[in-house]
Write a structure and sequence with these properties.
The chain contains twelve helices and 19 strands. By secondary structure, it is of the alpha+beta class. GO terms for molecular function: ATP binding; magnesium ion binding; phosphoribosylglycinamide formyltransferase 2 activity; phosphoribosylglycinamide formyltransferase activity.
Length: 396
């Protein structure tokens, strides 16, 4: 259907962001004979090791981004992180490039303000109460209005970076400083959200393709310090809750448009399902689908964005994932315990191959399948606890 990689007729995919999620996207694209180009802000990023070639640029630099893309001329531009100069993507889209799912979706979801205003104010979807603040004074006012506890996050960040809980009004200043330090891009704007007491939280993977919209079975997860540590699929919820969740996911993904997978994050509460945020790309909690579904979230994304049809998703087995995170910073380290973890039943490990560690950085994930979600969770957690990031002292 298309030429070999490197030939004039090849189909070329350029990935913006080359972490653990992008690595799996590239592998799936390679399986369909696509030529792949991985881009990130640092060398030797996980997806770079499996792509045909790679580039290191500052993806928030609009000029650098446009120059690279005009030179590469990819058939598909696939954002893998949110911190990208999305106005440059809009310009490129106007020139005829295809941005996944659309440049507008990338722009709206790159910052929490765009997507929150769209979901809550335009679509009227239920969310936590929120305010935005550009200074410590404004933050104090927002905290007063919303009350404590509340959650404060930079508008552009992910994996919980810069996020903190303000437990009493006096905490506002330290939360402000945490947000400034953790923000992905320069800028001071933060979102303040009322604290949601949820019974559980889920990711509803939603795929838009030529075959319409399909939902994956819901994925339950646990987050620590704003970053995921454990996920499982399926998450048990009532038929009414699932219908509510799918209604929200459909409304928001229809609005964003385009083809591809979306990770719709939702809180399940006593008062109904609340929308939290959405990623227009594979989701970290969705790594579990590598052991649960016939097509993983990465395979689904690649199929959808290439314009191929999709069957409804089949859950082959319940399963769970648990993460390994580094605790210190450095470059001399090794991941140990892989053999022990793999000795557990129906367990796999993905070691991402990131070149450096820093506190809280996700380095690997353990994946377990089992006849029951609880058994899978226990196995995945046990496997992850066997994995260690061992610092090599004499090389530091
Ligand atoms: N308003 C809130 N009330 C209670 N808990 C919250 C609230 N907002 C966020 N959290 C908790 O923090 C987690 C991370 O929040 P959020 O998804 O907004 O951050 P993120 O940095 O975008 O994370 P990721 O990139 O991993 O999705 C949530 O999954 C939830 O556990
Ligand atoms: N919650 C979003 C998420 O999990 N994104 C994944 O983490 C990578 C960045 O990791 P790093 O910060 O360790 O480089 C991203 O490239 C993506 O694969
Ligand atoms: Mg999130």
């Amino acid at each position: 259907m298309w030429g070999a990689p490197f030939s004039s007729q090849s189909r070329k995919l350029l990935l913006l962001g080359s972490g653990e999620l992008g690595k799996e996207v590239i592998i799936e694209a390679q399986r369909l004979g696509v030529e792949t180009v991985a881009v990130d802000r640092y060398a030797d990023a996980p997806a770079m090791g499996v792509a045909h070639r790679s580039h290191v640029i500052d993806m928030l630099d609009a000029e650098a981004l446009k120059k690279l893309i005009r030179a590469e001329k990819p058939d598909l531009i696939v954002p893998e992180i949110e911190a990208i100069a999305t106005h440059a993507l809009q310009e490129l889209e106007e020139e005829g490039f295809l941005v996944v799912p659309t440049a507008r979706a990338a722009r709206l979801t790159m910052d929490r303000e765009g997507i929150r205003r769209l979901a809550a104010e335009e679509l009227g979807l239920p969310t936590a109460d929120y305010r935005f603040a550009d200074s410590l004074d404004e933050l104090r006012q927002a905290v007063e209005i919303l009350g404590t506890p509340c959650v404060i996050k930079p508008i552009m960040s992910s994996s919980g970076k810069g996020q903190s809980i303000c437990r009493k009004p006096e905490d506002a200043e330290s939360c402000w400083n945490t947000a400034l330090e953790g923000a992905r891009a320069k800028g001071t704007r933060v979102i303040v959200e009322a604290f949601v007491t949820f019974e559980s939280e889920i990711t509803l993977l939603t795929v838009r393709s030529v075959s319409g919209t399909v939902f994956c079975p819901p994925i339950g997860h646990i987050q620590k310090d704003g970053d995921y540590v454990e996920s499982w699929q399926p998450h048990h919820m009532s038929a009414a809750q699932l219908a509510e969740a799918e209604g929200i996911a459909r409304a928001v993904t229809d609005q964003l448009g385009g083809f591809g997978i979306f990770g719709v994050e939702l809180f399940l509460t006593d008062h109904g399902v609340l929308f939290s945020e959405v990623s227009p790309r594979p989701h970290d909690t969705g790594m579990v689908t590598m052991v649960t579904q016939d097509l993983s979230e990465f395979a689904l994304h690649v199929r959808a964005i290439l314009g191929f049809p999709l069957d409804p998703v089949h859950l082959l087995s319940p399963g769970a994932s648990a993460t390994l995170k580094a605790e210190t910073a450095g470059q001399a380290f090794r991941v140990t315990g892989i053999g022990e973890a793999l000795a557990l039943p129906r367990t796999q490990v993905r070691v991402f191959g990131k070149p450096e560690i820093r506190p809280g950085r996700r380095m690997a994930v353990a994946l377990s399948a089992a006849e029951d979600v609880e058994i899978a969770r226990t196995a995945a957690k046990q496997a992850a606890s066997m994995l260690k990031v061992e610092v090599i002292e004499d090389e530091q």
